[in-house]
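Give me structure tokens for this 287-residue protein.
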Amino acid sequence: MRRAIRQSLFSDALRLTIFIAILAISIGIDTRADAAENSPTTEATSANDIQTLTAKAEQGDADSQTRLGWIYSAGKLVKQNYPEALEWFLKASQQGDLIAQYNLGEMYAHGQGTPKDEAEAVKWWRKAGDNGLAEAQYKLGAWCHDGHFVPQDFTEALKWFRSGTEQGYPLAEYALATMYERGQGVEQDDSEAFKLYLKAAEQGDPSAPGKVGLMYAEGRGVTQDYQEAFFWLDKVAPYAQYTDKEAFAAIDDVTKHLTQQQLSDIKAREQTWRPHWWVRPGPSGKP
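Here you go.
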């Protein structure tokens, strides 16, 4: 039953998309554009709000500049305008706004409002990551792991994933768990991998429950427990046939080891379980 681990941590764009969508719902973030992945925690709702933000931004308020950058990049209440978004993100980034720095990196990476510039993208992500933005730390770890934008470096990837994990960022926890499971840049350790997968699962990462369920079913990194295996595997059942075929297939096998009463008890437990959603600390992500 042990799953064949994919060689790239981050080729599964659907997993990230699902997580961002779920996280956005939980904290009210619009995800219609790349920059909106790291939007401010509140948003403009009218033309008057935009006028007020613009006035504050022109006076040098970094938070307002970041919000305007997001509004223009997402096309929120205004026509989408990447050059305008880039200008406001740059102004805020130069004042140290971490979300602006992250989104500025995104725009350079994708060539939005500016020619694509991978080195400039990494520069701004690194600034945000060095100053504690968990999303940037995860992004840097991903690129270091896959050798995308930067030379492949598992040691550097571990450093960034650990930084994100210290802030409880689920995607960083999942990525670090995968490196422990594979023994990439660190001694292979199923027990540590399980602990990290469980943390990510408890915070709503959509793929982590499948990993936790499989490890419970196999007794790998944790004492074998079919009831716990079913509890976690059942969470990915609605979409696992598309994103995690091994976890989906394992559900039937695990079910054979359980009584109807045990299954009923697990279903009842599922009705009251809720993830502990991760929320970025501080207004606009400032530490």
